[in-house]
Write a structure and sequence with these properties.
This protein is α+β, with helices and mostly antiparallel strands and about 220 residues long. Strand 3 and strand 4 form a beta hairpin. The protein has a four-stranded mixed sheet, with helices on one face. It contains ten helices and four strands. It folds into two domains: about 80 residues, 3-Layer(aba) Sandwich (Glutaredoxin); about 110 residues, Glutathione S-transferase Yfyf (Class Pi), Chain A, domain 2 (Up-down Bundle). The structure holds glutathione (GSH). The site of glutathione has 13 residues, from helix 1. The site of glutathione (GSH) has 13 residues, from helix 1.
Amino acid sequence: MKLLIGNRNYSTWSLRPWLVLRHFEIPFEDEVLQLSGSGWRDVLAERSPTGKVPVLIDGALVIPETIAIIEYLAETFPDKAIWPQGREARALARAAAAEMHGGFSALRSHAPMNLRASHPGKVDLDAVRGDLHRVETLWGRLLEKSGGPYLFGDFSGADAMFAPLATRLRTYDLPVSDMVGRYVEAIYALPAFQEWRGLALQEPWVVDDDEIDVIQGRVAPGTIV
Ligand SMILES: N[C@@H](CCC(=O)N[C@@H](CS)C(=O)NCC(=O)O)C(=O)O
């Protein structure tokens, strides 16, 4: 199996299935397709049916779309508990994953994932207040019920879906409850996440579209090194 991914520092969608593969010890290789530089969109268009990453390649099968990849892994490796035990818990985990996939647009646009950076105080809190409130409600309810440290107790596909959002809370030092703060710590403590982050920190590439100082006009494109 091979997973095509984007730059580890910035590519939220790539991080999600990569965490599932690595955490559940499914053998795979990965290949980074850059999300910046000359001709990057052409490379993506050649390699991915949607022109986006991640893409999972299993023999002749080529699967785009993060949720489809995670579901394929869950079906292919039913012994791995990628989704939690119990039909009701699985339904809630899939609902959370779908909500992440289609929602939280304010946090996604105002607080791009940037693992190597620390930008406290730079996000307009009014713009993301609704999303932060929903994070508190959703994670709070699930963590209270499961007892943590992950949303359904053990790490699952739902946590993989929310891991990038957890990093945004830390990068931009957004105001959260102790419970959400502990969950963010649990994501950062996951060995698979630590491996990804370690590799992200070694990447030399800068994607201006995901750099908040460029987005907010503090620095010119092409000047961050
Ligand atoms: N709906 C897709 C979204 C994938 C996506 O937007 N990936 C970004 C990288 S994180 C990408 O490939 N962007 C390139 C582009 O938009 O041209 C999924 O769930 O996998």
